[in-house]
Design a protein that fits this description.
Pfam family, one: Thymidylate_kin
GO molecular function, one term: dTMP kinase activity
Number of helices: 9
Bound molecules: adenosine-5'-diphosphate, thymidine-5'-diphosphate
Distance between the termini: 21 Å
Catalytic activity: dTMP + ATP = dTDP + ADP
CATH superfamily: P-loop containing nucleotide triphosphate hydrolases
Helix content: 55-70%
Radius of gyration: 16 Å
Enzyme class: transferase
EC number: 2.7.4.9
Number of strands: 5
Number of domains: 1
Shape: globular
Order of helices and strands: EHEHHEHHEHHHEH
CATH topology: Rossmann fold
Length: 214
């Protein structure tokens, strides 16, 4: 059996991560490519707890909480799906911790990097972004998903921090695509088609991975 592929989708709140994940999942499923769509925090009890309590847990505490959930998610869901040859699409991953726990909450960046040091790097990281005013408008329509999105000044800082974090991880060797989702339907359609063929291409060439920790 061929090896799967790990794709992380990250970016500020309301950048369009869940929408992209849904669209990619539909395309791959329609094309007969096996997909495992997932999210972080995960749907396991610890992940659900973290998602519900981003108001009470901040900084290092939240970094540890989402970090523990991440390792459990890798062990119980992501790696088995990759080993089964699937394309794993994950809504949020390590960049969220670098941006939200370190950048926004002020946990020491070195500590957040340390917590995440054994988390498998994705084969492809998609970082969605949009102008802060567009993000704020979408958040107003959709409603906040928690503490981070309650703060109207957040999109501005998040956009900048995601750009920096994406550039640093690309520099460190993680294949990264940064895309603006505010460009209208044609641009989104072409982004979706481009990502679909990139992911299919990587998936068809994937070779067995060495997992960082077993
Ligand atoms: N490319 C896009 N253009 C315009 N609106 C979008 C786009 N992608 C998502 N949206 C809208 O923005 C809102 C947030 O999208 P969502 O996918 O939930 O973002 P996220 O998962 O990043 O928080 C939703 O109302 C969605 O319909
Ligand atoms: C993965 C991850 C999520 N989070 C937070 C961000 C969100 O507030 C919450 C995820 O909730 P969610 O409802 O998925 O937010 P969104 O729709 O914006 O993706 O968890 C972190 O703080 N650090 C992390 O590493």
């Amino acid at each position: 059996m061929s090896q799967g592929l790990f794709v992380a989708i990250d970016g500020p709140g309301a950048a369009g991560k869940s929408t992209l994940l849904r669209n990619l999942t539909e395309r791959f499923t329609g094309a007969g490519v096996p997909v495992h769509a997932t999210t972080e925090p995960s749907r396991a009890p610890l992940g659900e707890f973290a998602r519900r309590h981003t108001g009470e847990y901040t900084g290092m505490a939240l970094a540890c909480l989402v970090g523990a959930d991440r390792y459990h998610h890798l062990e119980t869901e992501i790696r088995p799906a990759i080993d089964a040859g699937k394309v794993v699409l994950c809504d949020r991953y390590t960049l969220s911790s670098l941006v939200l726990q370190a950048g926004i909450d002020g946990a020491p960046e070195a500590a957040v990097r340390c917590i995440n040091a054994y988390a498998d790097p994705p084969d492809l990281q998609i970082v969605l972004t949009a102008p802060p005013a567009v993000l704020r408008e979408r958040l107003d329509v959709r409603g906040s998903h928690g503490r981070f999105e309650d703060d109207p000044s957040l999109p501005e800082r998040e956009v900048e921090l995601y750009h920096k974090a994406a550039a640093a991880s690309e520099q460190a060797g993680v294949r990264t695509v940064v895309a603006d989702t505010s460009q209208g339907p044609e641009a989104i359609e072409s982004l979706l088609s481009g990502l679909t063929s990139t992911i299919r291409g990587l998936w068809s060439q994937a070779t067995p991975r060495i997992h960082l920790m077993r």
